[in-house]
Structures are given as C-alpha cells and as structure tokens.
Amino acid sequence: MCGIVGYVGTEDAKEILLKGLEKLEYRGYDSAGLAIVNEEGVHVYKEKGRIATLRSVVDQNEEGVIGIGHTRWATHGVPSQINAHPHQSASKRYTIVHNGVIENYAQLTREYLQAVNLASDTDTEIIVQLVERFSSEGLSTEEAFSKTLDLLKGSYATALLDSESPDTIYVGKNKSPLLVGLSDGVNVVASDAMAMLQVTNEFVELMDKEIVVVTRKGATIKTLQGDVVSRDSYIAELDESDIEKGTYPHYMLKEIDEQPYVIRNIISKYKDENENIKLDEDIRQAMLDADRIYIIAAGTSYHAGLVGKQLIERIANKPVETHIASEFLYNMPLLSKKPLFIFISQSGETADSRGVLVSVKKMGHKALTITNVPGSTLSREADYTLHTYAGPEIAVASTKAYTAQMAVLAILAVDTAKAAGIDMSFDPLQELAIVASAMETLTDKKEVLEKIAREYLSVTRNCFFIGRAIDYYVCLEGALKLKEISYIQAEGFAGGELKHGTIALIEDGTPVIGLATQEHVNLSIRGNMKEVVARGASPCMISMEGFEDEDDQLVVPHVHDYLTPLVTVIPLQLIAYYAALHRDCDVDKPRNLAKSVTVE
Ligand code: F6R
C-alpha cells in the first residue's frame, strides 16, 4: 500500500527510482510519480495506472542525481493524475511524497491554509503547503518540516525536496514504515528494503516522530524537537534473486510452489541438535503464564489464526480467542486476568493489528508477533517475535505466508504443551516433513487443478466453499483467495449453516467446493453436499486419503489430523490462480488491493 523511494548519489536518479518503484508494485497502487532535481529545478512526472505508463512519460534525457518517487493507493481523492504524488507547494519550491493518512487535514487546512488554492483532493498536499507556509515565516526547511510533522495527526512516511537545497532529501515518519539505506557517497530512502537492494543492503530503521536529513554524505536522524539520535544500521538478509520471478509467469505461482521448501526451512530453523523444538525460553514462559491467548490478525493471517486457535486449544489445552484486528480495536471483549496477545502478520506492518498492539501494550499486556518480516513494526513493538521464514512474499494474494504461519503455530502449540507437562505423541517437526511431501504431490497436480478451475469457474458469478470443523477455516481462506484474484463472489461456509439461509443462493450449476478431511465430520459434510446437489449445484469434493469417496474430484495425501489445512489449501490456491488466469485477471496485482495495508 503506497510506496516511497528516494535517491541521492552520483548516478541517473530517474532510472534507479523507476526500478525501485517497480519493486514496490507488489504492495498495490493505482498511480505513480517521481520528481528529479537538477540545475533547471525540480521536474515532476506522475500518471494514473502502472509504472510502465509513468516510465513512458518520463523524459529519457532528464538528468539528475537526486529524486523521490511514489506509488499511490488512493485513500483521500480518486486515483487520478492530479491526486498522484509528488505534490508541490504553491510556489513549487517544495515537493513531497507521502504514505499514510492525515486525520486532521481538514482542521489544519482551516487553521493555516485558508489562503492557499489546493490543487488536489489529497490529504498529502497540505503537508507540503504547510512546510511552505512555515518557511515563509522565517523557519529553515528542516524547522518548517519538523513543525509541520508535529502538527499532523495520523500516519505518515514522507520525503520532501527543497529546490533551494538541491542536494538534500528530508524524510519523516509516524506509524507508516520507512527506511534509510546507506552506501558510499550514495544514500537512499525506501518503504521496503527490496526497493533499494539495487543500491545497498545496509539500512537504518526510523522510529515514529523522527526526521532524517539525507544527503550524499550521510543521514542525520533527529527527533522532531531537533535532538540528534544515533542508531546502528543493519544488513538486510535479502538477495535480489529472492524477489525475482525467475521462469514463473507470476509471483503467486512461484510462491505456491515454494511452500514445501518453506515448511522444510521452518523445520530446520525450529529444530535443535537433538531434533527437539528450539524456541525462545521467554516465549515458552509467556505461553505458560497466560491464562488465555488472544490471536489478533487480518485477512489471510486471521484465517491462519483460526487454525491456530484449534491447534493451541487441542494440543496445549489453553483457551484461545481469535479476533479480526480492525474489530478488536473498537469492540474489545472482556479480557482474562493474564492474557497473552499473539499478532499474526505476514508484513508486520498492518495498521489494524498495530492499533491493537499499541492499545494492549498500554494496558500492560505481553505480546508475541508471528511474522515474515522480523524487523517490521509489529515485530519491533511486541515483546517477542517468531519468524515464519517464508522468504519475501510478493504476490498480493498471500499463500506461502499462510502455511508458514500455521506451521509455526503448530510448533508453538506443541512446545507449550510439552512445557506444561502434557504427554505428547504428536511430533510437529516429523509431521511437517510429511506435510511438505504432500504439498509437493499437490503442486505437481497443476493440470488437474487448472481443469477444475476451467470447468467450474470460467463463467460463474459466484462460488461456495463448504467444510466443517477445521476444514471450515480453510474454506474461508479458499473463498478469499478466489474472490481477491478472480473477482468471483465467493463465500466460505460451515457446512451445517448453509440451510439456515445461504442455501437460497444455490441455483443450477452453482459451483460448491467441499472439503472432507476430518473423520468425525466426513458423513455430515457429505450430507451437506448432497443438499446443495439436490438444488442444482455443481459439486467439487476435495477429500483426504482415508476418507475419500469414488466420486471425489481430488484426493489429497494423508497428513496428521492437526495439519490438514496446510495441505488442503494448496488445491484451493491453485484453483483460484487458474480461475483468475481463465478470466484474464492480473493475478499478482488484483484491483483495489494492497499487499501491506498500512492505513486503518
Ligand atoms: C490476502 C491477504 C490479506 C492479508 C491481510 C493481512 O491474500 O494477503 O488478507 O493477509 O491484509 O496482512 P498481514 O498478514 O501482512 O498482516
């Protein structure tokens, strides 16, 4: 969701910024722009649509060794050329890009900018106009920038150019992520390290309410009050090849195929030399101390959290509630006496989850973040972190992060159970190895799944996924995958709940995908499938070896009862992928969506 890049060095800034923006495409955006500074002044290019469109309008002869760039995911104001960033102040002295939402922009406009004709509908523009106003009152650019940021309520990551100091980028952040990258005689700014790996792998994280003055010679971090802050840099453990598609047509397909390797990687990272689970003692103790676990997450990570609830309750015998982050923030249930909060987030930047984290930390509760990005905001601000080791996930539709989250939750559940003295025959490390092989069997069945997608989903307007018990949670995820990338209206339903209303939607030919992996509900889910077939539905039953029926469309390899979601989701991911292809959808960059949802 929105992305920022900035470059100050010795090379062609426009090319580096465009490449950086291409690396941020995965976050989701609807317009893009950049500004380059040279002797003639600041030149702004911006366009609605893809980076390729922006590239086509940037003057190839544009020279300049300093600039900023942006991908915008519209919040205030429609996606358009005018609302795209960068925005400029009335005199065009200042140029800015911004991620986030300024909550008090209307009030600040009334108070300070009555006399200014705003050119766009964005909240961003007021930042650059305020900087100009305060600098015209005699403040230096740095002072005017700090004063402006101090007035803002909401979230921002922002980079500012001043045509009168053409060797400097001023950056600031609050709640939205932003990094400064360091190299020899070259410094960069990026929302995500991936964007600037082309220049450096050494980065410094910024904390909320800090500003940085970035030049070729260095980067000085200060508080908004002007105190210099010293912070060590870190080396991003990322390789440019990790973020390339290779021979794959789409990142999503590559990431689906990577799942067996991810699971094996998790096994190796969480295994000690005696083949036992290796986990931080403090996390173990926090799990033991808690009288109730609250799992908080959004979207696909929430679906992993639903499975996590089952795993922790069944294996470790500890009560768990799983909540949607955006709801929990405003509708908090009565908490237990000693809660532990577990945040699940691929990106570690989801604003809804962060809102809950900030709020429960204020209440004095402990928090553990399970994330794919250990240096992320949710990881830094929680007491403990468990890494999912899935490698960068670029496709907007989450696949390998979901299975990795569930694998880590299974390991955590067993570790807690053992520490609590519960007799345990289930060895998650061994069982996950079986899961990895089962995943491979399924990723090899692409032709079968492509055919299912073609036959059931090429022309339909809607689709239902039904399952019971743990299969129901996978149905929610299967439906989310299908709707987000193929735009087919899809719903996941508990098999038994259909006849309480939803069955009214079943018509001749309505596709219903059923999951049957659990012995104790096998007969009842098959009964539910018969009910929809009797009303004209086209059934597609996916079952697990041992509980299959001869008419089932797909039988997945047998894995331990606790871990079936890691396997059954693979065909659902592939069915969604092929359905989107058959409908000519942009698989990796679905409309209206952002990878990292950094606004509430
Ligand atoms: C769907 C998807 C989203 C994310 C959600 C939370 O494929 O990716 O539903 O799961 O936006 O994001 P994270 O996990 O980064 O907190």
Walk me through the topology.
Elements: E1 3-8, H1 13-24, E2 31-38, E3 41-48, H2 51-57, E4 66-72, E5 87-88, E6 94-99, H3 105-112, H4 125-136, H5 141-151, E7 156-162, E8 169-174, E9 179-183, E10 186-190, H6 193-196, E11 202-205, E12 210-214, E13 219-223, E14 228-229, E15 234-235, H7 251-257, H8 259-269, H9 281-289, E16 292-297, H10 299-316, E17 320-324, H11 325-328, E18 339-345, H12 351-362, E19 366-371, H13 377-381, E20 384-387, H14 400-419, H15 428-443, H16 446-457, E21 462-467, H17 470-486, E22 489-494, E23 511-516, H18 522-533, E24 538-544, E25 554-556, H19 564-582
Helix pairs in contact: 4-5, 8-14, 8-15, 9-14, 10-14, 10-17, 14-19, 15-19, 16-19, 17-19
The protein binds fructose -6-phosphate.
Fructose -6-phosphate binds next to helix 10 and helix 17.
What does this structure look like?
This protein has 600 residues and is α/β, with parallel strands linked by helices. The chain has 3 domains: 3-241, Aminohydrolase, N-terminal nucleophile (Ntn) domain (Glutamine Phosphoribosylpyrophosphate, subunit 1, domain 1, 4-Layer Sandwich), CATH 3.60.20.10; 245-441, Rossmann fold, CATH 3.40.50.10490; 445-590, Rossmann fold. Helices cover 36% and strands 22% of the residues. It is built from 19 helices and 25 strands. The strands form 4 sheets. The chain has an 8-stranded antiparallel β-sheet. A 7-stranded antiparallel β-sheet has the order 5-6-7-8-12-13-14, with helices on one face. A 5-stranded parallel β-sheet has the order 17-16-18-19-20, with helices on both faces. The mean pLDDT is 94. Residues 298-301, 345-347, 350, 353, 397-398, 480, 484, 596-597 line the site of fructose -6-phosphate.
